[in-house]
Amino acid sequence: MIEIERVDHLVLTVADIDRTVGFYRRVLGLRPVTSGSGRRALEFGNQKINLHQAGREATPAAHRPTPGSADLCLVSRGPLADVLAHLAACRVPVEEGPVERTGAVGPMVSVYLRDPDGNLIEICSYTGPATRH
Fold first, then answer.
1. Does residue 123 contact residue 115 with C-beta atoms inside 8 Å?
2. Which domain of life is it from (predicted)?
């Protein structure tokens, strides 16, 4: 049997890599990186989001790579009140929330926003003890 430990990276297909990098750096504090081959990504914690330019995706790629088709949930280290204040300062509208949800390790509170391609970005903060590892 295979035992998966964690997610290493995700891939977003985007209309404009520079615009995407700017948004994720300014709004979410992700660190832009460029590999030796020139591929661009965004790092945070021990994970990263690789960026593929729509129409010029690296191979292999998703069967139908499309800007705006992703739905990601990112965990905030700080309180959601700080997230909301930062989003307001960045003039990024909150689409929904704060709302209670159940995440991978327990109860959480989330807010939802959209990136420049329309991807749904959920930012959450856990509110109780972790129930799973």
1. no
2. Bacteria
Mean pLDDT value across residues 74-91: 95
Helices (H) and strands (E) in the chain, counts: 2, 8
Cα–Cα nearest to 132, from 1, 9, 6: 6
Residues, the chain, total? 133
CA atoms of 87 and 56, how far apart (whole Å)? 31
For residues 96-110, one letter each, b for 16 or more C-beta atoms within 10 angstroms of the residue's C-beta and e for the rest, the string is ebbeeeebeeeebbb
Round to whole Å and give the CA distance between 119 and 66: 10
- Collapse the DSSP code of 79 into the 3-class scheme (helix H, G, I; strand E, B; otherwise coil) and give the result: coil
Q: Has this prediction a pTM greater than 0.85?
A: yes
Q: What is the mean pLDDT of residues 2-25?
A: 95
* Residue 98 to residues 7, 12, 72, Cα–Cα distance (Å): 25, 25, 16
Instruction: Let me know if 5 is a catalytic residue.
Output: no
